[in-house]
Amino acid sequence: MSSIKDLNSLSQIIKDEINKVEKKIDTSNVGQVISVGDCIATVFGLDKAMYGELILFPGPSYGMVMNIEEDNIGVALFGDDITIKEGDLCQRTMNVVSVPVGDALLGRVVNALGQPIDGKGKIDSNIFRPVEMMAPSIMDRESVTEPLETGIKVIDAMIPIGKGQRELIIGDRQTGKTAIAIDTIINQKGKDVICIYCSIGQKNSSLAQIVNKLKQFDALKYTVVVSANASQSSPMIYLAPYSATSIAEYWMRQGKDVLIVYDDLSKHAVAYRTLLLLLRRSPGREAYPGDIFYLHSRLLERSCKLNDELKGGSITALPIVETQAGDISAYIPTNIISITDGQLFLNTDMFNAGQRPAIDSSLSVSRVGSAAQTKIMKKESKNLRMQLANYHEMLDFSRFGSDLDKTTQKILTHGAILLEVLKQKQYMPLSMAQEIIDIFVAQSGELDSIDPLKVHSFLKLLSIYINAHCPEIYENISNKKVFSDEDKSKVINILNNIKVAKITDDLTDEVL
Ligand code: ATP
Ligand code: MG
Q1: Atom 25 in ligand 1: residue holding the nearest Cα
Q2: Residue 163 to residues 75, 239, 252, 270, 469: CA-CA distances in angstroms?
């Protein structure tokens, strides 16, 4: 009996000694790679690792904890997975993924980790911000009231966007989605708005073109480009929009206005699906993981207008989503439509018929509405949507018969002119004053008698004449915020003089 007792106490002594040794060497921060492949490493031994924590692998390369299971963790690798082997040791860093932020990023092209990829050298910033941050609470926010001018007539007049709003740009492939976003960035020149263009899963060549255009229009100096191109790993693509938002938040918290474009979130959703399927998370609808809604809601919730106590900065978000054959009721589009404050729907048929930008006014909406419009724009554009709806309705009827009464014919001619005026070339954003004059002239009916093909020549000549002979009309609109009846009759007079002189007869848009 006594020998068993001795044995028990002996084993207790050995256990105590082992415990003492284990306490001295803390092994909970070092793990071992069980398997690696497809940019995912499964690691054993990091029981205390947090979700989203950065893990250091030999190389050195980094990964982010994306999956926590009972006896292992799944880490999404940011670098190449060929440098990491089974059995390698890895270590917790106790930090979450962060990106450099601040003015040093302006004019730069960076990857999802904030590292420069434009060959212009190191980014000189010692301020870092975690990529995942809580969205501002309701009490921290203020309602959206200030317009963010896109410089695109049809948007500023009918679907106005406010500072702090989230407006989705949605449409099939090659319908001018990116063009709207880039024009809006170009239009922010001199308006004290910092822009961020986040390119997600696109070709390198498309990005190079966009960066060149931004340079050409002198817009790169107030813009940051965050890119995770199609050839990069899914963890980098997954991270890119969050990093871009963190970069934007730094300026918003300093009271500045920021515009952020996510081009596009459909590719982001696909990258997240790939990542989580590789991590063996169970697939749900269309094989997307169950938290696909949360993926985009927590991202877009971070864009808002802060209240004055928090310095009143804002982030305006323009997420882009690609549809298949115009189907806006698919899974990802409906998710994002419900998260945003409205959408600009681009219609493929309109685009192919030459109506560019191809914004379908019947399916596009801004839930902030005219609260984000200047008073003059609100006044001048209030009937526009109605007139267009009337036109489309009559157009459908007119297909049934050739005998049209005068009123119908008038509506049809007027509608065609309105649509013509709303056409706008790429990279040609207009000032608010010019937009207001164009929309006023279009609605006045004075253009109805001219050939629709000549409308743009007329508008161009009109602006040249106003600039030369009565520039105060522009000043009154932009500075004094008034468009008086007197100024309106001056505009109509000039227009009539152009008509009578028939100057546009031999001129084309190109000459003007
Ligand atoms: P993708 O689905 O490939 O991303 P997208 O919807 O972003 O395409 P864009 O690349 O912006 O479309 O535009 C497609 C083409 O249409 C481009 O060649 C562009 O130059 C042209 N385009 C876009 N907007 C206009 C416009 N307002 N006027 C004339 N051409 C335009
Ligand atoms: Mg595009």
Answers
A1: 426
A2: 37, 25, 11, 29, 34
For the chain, what's the residue count?
Answer: 512
Residue whose tokens read 């945003």: 340
Instruction: Establish whether the linkage from the previous residue to 60 is cis, with ω within 30° of 0.
Output: yes
- Render pLDDT for 408-430 as a digit per residue (tens, 0 to 9): 889 999 999 999 999 999 999 99
How many angstroms separate the alpha carbon of residue 171 from the centre of ligand 2?
10
Please say if 367 is a catalytic residue.
Answer: yes
Report CA(180)–ligand 1 centroid distance (Å): 8
Handedness of CA 81, 83, 89, 91 (dihedral sign): negative
Judge whether 433 and 463 are in contact, CB under 8 Å.
no
- DSSP one-letter code for 428: -
- Ligand positioned closest to the Cα atom of 263: 2
What is the DSSP code string of 135-147? PPPGGGB----SB
- Helical spans, DSSP H, in 177-264: 177-186, 204-216, 234-253
State in Å: Cα 351 to ligand 1 middle: 9
Return the best residue to mutate from 150, 177, 428 for the ligand 1 pocket (most ligand atoms within 8 A of CB): 177
For ion ligand 2, residues whose CB falls within 5 Å: 178
What is the distance, to the nearest Å, from the Cα of residue 237 to the centroid of all Cα atoms in its chain?
15
**Residue 400 in tokens:** 């049934």
**Nearest-angstrom CA–CA distance, 14 and 321:** 63
At 404, is the pLDDT very low, low, confident or very high (cuts 50, 70, 90)?
confident
User: Which residues, in sequence order, are bridge partners of residue 359?
Assistant: 346
- 312 phi/psi in degrees, rounded to 5: 70, 20
Whether the CB-CB separation of 92 and 55 falls below 8 Å is answered with yes
Q: Please give the number of the atom of ligand 1 that sits closest to the Cα of 346.
A: 6
CB atoms within 10 A of CB 459: 24
pLDDT tens-place string over residues 126-157: 999 999 999 999 999 999 999 999 999 999 99
Kindly tell me if the per-residue pLDDT of 164 is higher than 70.
yes
Q: Give CA–CA dist 37/347, Å, rounded.
A: 41
Q: Tens digits of per-residue pLDDT, 87-101? A: 999 999 999 999 999
Residues with CB under 6 A from ligand 1: 171, 173-179, 322, 356-357, 424-426
Cβ pair 157, 377 in contact under 8 A:
yes
Q: Residues 6 or more apart from 442 whose CB is under 8 A from it?
A: 417, 418, 421, 422
Q: Whose CA is nearest to atom 13 of ligand 1?
A: 176
Alpha-carbon span 361 to 359, nearest angstrom: 6
Contact 297, 334 (CB under 8 A): no
Burial class (CB in 10 A: 0-12, 13-18, 19+), 432: buried
Task: Assess whether the previous peptide bond of 341 is cis (omega < 30° from 0).
Answer: no
Residue with CA nearest ligand 1 atom 12: 176
CA distances from 252 to 127, 301, 406 (A): 15, 14, 55
